[in-house]
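Subject: Interface between my chains keeps coming out wrong

I've been trying for a while to get a sensible model of this assembly. When I model each chain on its own everything looks fine, but I need the whole thing in one frame so I can look at the contacts. Pasting all components below, labels as-is. Any help appreciated, I'm running out of ideas.
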Amino acid sequence: MDSDHEAYILLLLSDSNLPTGSFVASAGLESYVTHGFFTDLAPTAGQVTAPPPDKMVYTVNFLRDSLSSYARSALPFVLDAHVVVEDALKKPQAAPEDWLDSTLRRLVELDELYEATTLNHVARRASRNQGVALLTLFSKGFSEPQLPLHLHRPGPLAPQPEASAAKLADRLKLLVRREETHGHLPICWGVLTAALQLSSGADDSYPLFDAFSSYTQPERSQYLHLFLQARSLLSSSVRLNTIGPYAAQQLLLHAVRPVVDFEMWRCKRLTTASVTSQHSSPKTQDEDALLGPAMTWPLGEILAARHDLQHSRIFNS
Amino acid sequence: MAIHHIQPGHGRIVVHNDGYSNHFSELSSSYPLKLLSAGTPPRNVSMVYALTYGGGLASGDHTETVIEVHDGARLAMFSQGSTKVSKARPGHPRRSAPAKSNPEPAGTASQKLAVHVASGGAFFLLADPVTCFRDARYHRTQVVHLARDSSVVLLDWMTSGRKASSEEWEFTSYQSRVDVYVDGRRIAEENMLVEGPYSFCTAQEAAKGFHVSGGALRSRCERTKPYSCYATVILYGELVHETLRRLSVARHNASSPRLSWSMSSICEGRGCIVKIGAEETEDVRVWLRQALSELEGVLGVDVYRQAFR
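Reply #2:
Try treating it as a single job with all components included. I did that and got this:
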């Protein structure tokens, strides 16, 4: 896929109208606000003169704390799922069925692990819903439409995702429908971006997304995932009326990028290898345990899991 | 029976039940770890205190305990006061054998616990919280293998530090990992990590990240306030069924401003994860004593009183 097409795909994926169901998820923000964490918790005597922080400040703080824990726990899964599919699509496919089965086995293993590491039932539910929505989006939204001939614009056609990639996504979706696996968001995101072959190589130029130029293919997938998580949080803020739409736009432009950049630096190299490779020696297991997915924000975890206990709520998570 | 050579800091507990009462077929430990059986529990319950000499973990300490619970026996494990982890001092002589691989940064105090609970048996880890001092590094791994009809309660909690001397969130790194398997299938993997902002990138990258984020990183104190004590309890099995039922009703009550808690069920409702955050350690202790009080019937009143004193 050339860089023009990749840029176009990126535009598509970052569209806020993308039907992924993320508009019903607030990733714990609603519960956080309901529990009173957007008001000054402990005004101390020394601070009385200072004005209380406004909602913008609380929003940015939530965004940073939430993204930092999410990056640490989900990015390793995005990376691994992306690499599994990317590698599988590169290999010559001598026995297509075996190839498909082994790739799926690996993805299901990752999915099972994400289920076991996500101990908060609200987050688990939201992640499953959004994951399967991505798979549906891929099979329904990225295949070529049946249009009357005169509507086809002459010129370069959008490259179709490879047939094998489409088959893989369909099989995964079938497993989710049969409840044989969960279909968690980070895994499905990795599958989707690898199947769409985001980028063709490191030496291409990306006029549209300059920030991406230093990233490798799976890293772009991770970066976009974090960005979308942040954007979704900000649109939840607007719907919760904690900040206005212009303020959300301001934050998206000025506050989100440094946060996403920073979390990328910290987390882009983390993998799930420690927890999946049961046969590795105890030595490597110990080493990797420090580099595997982890939960880093216990406060956010408690409040997010209390989501369903709110008397009224507009989000699902 | 051959006597195993025990490495420094290692311990082993094997409990059987002969149909009349529990007995230890093995209870051994080596400096700086000490495992003591104490108390007069009911016949099918055993109690073990896990202690370390000096009342805590020094820089580079490593303890490794293997526990087997057989024949429907019940084993409760306690500590004597909170586990205090002192400042990491790389290069200082260590008093225990290093972890086999020693992958942790120098000076990390680490603890490993591997538990196997056979069918019908139960294990209760009701130790006091871990308190890490300034510049301490602590890393704990707990792996629990259960059969479908065994039961477990794993309490894992930490405090922000020596709050009385206003040393809060000053430690370098705290990591606690708990893996629970039922019949070989992983049902929960909790990996909680509380550390300073830079631990997983190079200094150069950190500097760059610091630059782009405008030089204002969120401190752990800001991210966790107003709470300074966090606990996770993993419960599974028939013996905690009543506790689970009661907690799932109780969670609808408003949480107090001093304490918040949540509950998520796992393994098709046969177990759950409870997370608690509170301003003071004592708040959590009081809450736990009340929330887990059904265990009095399982362990006996005298044994249960040893926890949350």
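Reply #3:
Confirming on my end. Chain B has a mean pLDDT of 88.
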